[in-house]
User: What shape does this take?
Amino acid sequence: MADRDSIFPRSSGILMHPTSLPGPYGMGDLGTWAYRFVDLLAAAGQSVWQVLPLGPTGFGNSPYQVYSTFAGNNHLIALDGLADQGWLTRSDLASQPWFPPHQVDYERAVRYHDDLLTRAYDNFVIRDVPQQKAAFQAWVEVPQQWWLDDFALFMTLKEHHEGRAWTEWPEGEALRDEETLKAMRAMHACRIDEHRWRQWVFAQQWDALRAYAHGKGIRIVGDIPIYVAHDSSDVWTQPHLFQLDEKGQPISIAGVPPDYFSATGQRWGNPLYDWAENKRTGYDWWIKRIKAALSTADIVRIDHFRGFDRYWSIPAEEPTAVGGHWVQGPQMDFFEALSAGLESELDELPLIAEDLGDDLGHALVLRDELNLPGMVILQFAFGANESEQERFLPAAHRENSIVYTGTHDNNTVLGWWWCESSPDDRERMRQAVGQDEIKQPNWALIEMGMSSPAHTFIALLQDVIGLGASARMNKPGVPSQQWRWRATADELEGADWDRLMALAQAHDRAPKVTGS
Assistant: This one.
C-alpha cells in the first residue's frame, strides 16, 4: 500500500467557508480578511484550511446546491481587488449599505455585489488596457474552460427568465435546440461575456489566495457533493448523464431511507446519475469534475461517498423517501477510471470519503480498498448510540482518518453542550476527558481531537472562537435561514490562537521549523 504521508501528514486546521469571513461588503470574500485568516492559521501552527463547495449558490444559498459544479461563486470576488485593478473607484465602495456583522443578508448582499460587478465589467470593457483584455481572452480559451460558455449562457437565460428553473424555459432553450441557442447567444452577447469575465476574475483571485496560502504552508481542502442540482448548467448541458425524461424532468431522485432521525427519510430532489451512460463515456464528465476541483484545492472531500457503493433511488413522483429502494452504484469501476484519468495510483487519490451515517454496508470496504481517509465527528462519541461511541471515541480512531469537532451540519460544540446534549451525554464526555467539571467544552474537544492518532484534525472556527448555537452554519432539513454565519473582526482576531498553537505543538501537528 502506498505511503500517504505526503498527502496527509500529521496536521491540524480549521473548517471555515469564505462567506463567514469579516468585511464591510455584506459577506466574506477573497480579499483582505481571507489573507489575514491565512496569516492567523500559519501563526497558530495550523496547515489546513477546509472550505465548503465554492460554486455559485442556488436554492437556499446552499453551497451544496449550486448552478455549476465547475464555476466559482462570483459573489466571493473581493470588491477591493476590483478597485485595485482600476475597474472600480474607491468612491464606488465608500457608500455601501449597512450589513449585519454576524450574518449574511444574502438578498441585499448579492444585489449589492451584482451592481458593482456589472459596473466593474463595464469599466473593464471601456478602458483601453490591452494586457488585461489579452489575459482574459487567454484564460477563456484554455481547454479546461470547456464548460464556461454553456455556464455563461445558462446564467444569462436564467436571469432573462426571472430565475425560473431551466425546465420552465421555452422548449427550444430548455432542450437546447441549436438554432434557438445560436439566436440567444447573439441576443445576449454582452451579458454572456460578463458572466465569463466574472468567472475569470474569481479564478484570478482564488488562485492568488491559494498561492499565498501555499507560501504560508497552508493546504486547501475542498469539497464536492456527489450529486448536483437539477437546476444547474451541469444537468442542462449533460442531460444524458442523468435519469431524466424527454422533457428534462427527473425520473428518479436522490435521498436517504427512513432511519432513527426521520420516519420518512430525506428526499433531496437531486437527479440520479445514469451510471451506465456515464460508464459508456468513460466517466469523462466526472473525471473533468474531479480535475477541476483539484485545480482549486489540494485535497477534495466527496460528500455522500456511500453513493458510489449503493444509493437510495426515489421515484420522482413520491412525496417522501419511503418509496425508494437501494441500487448498486459504480463501485470500484468508477475509481479505476478516475485513477487512470488523473494519472494517479488508485491508493494515492487526494480524496476524503465522507463516510458518516447508518447502514454503510460495503461503502466502508470500498473506502479501505481505496485507502481513503474517512471522517470522525467527536460530538457523536458521547450519545446513547453505542455503535457511534465505539466508532467515534479516540480509542477507536484510525490513523488514516480526519477528526472533526463538528462539521457544517453540526451545532457548535458549545451549542451542542448547552442545547442538545443530555446529562448522560455530558457525563460520558467528562469520563472521556478525565475531568469532573468541564468549564470549556469546546477546548476539551479540540484537545481531544489534537491528541487523536488520526493524521488530520479539523476544528470549526466557531469552536476555536468559542461561540454558541447562534453561530451554527447549517441545520439539515431546515430549508431557509441557513449558511449565514459570519465571524466579526474582533472575534477572529480575539480567538485564542496561542492556545491552538500550543496544542498543535504538544501533539506533533505543528509544521516543523528547520534551521537556516
Q: What stands out?
A: The chain has a mean pLDDT of 95.
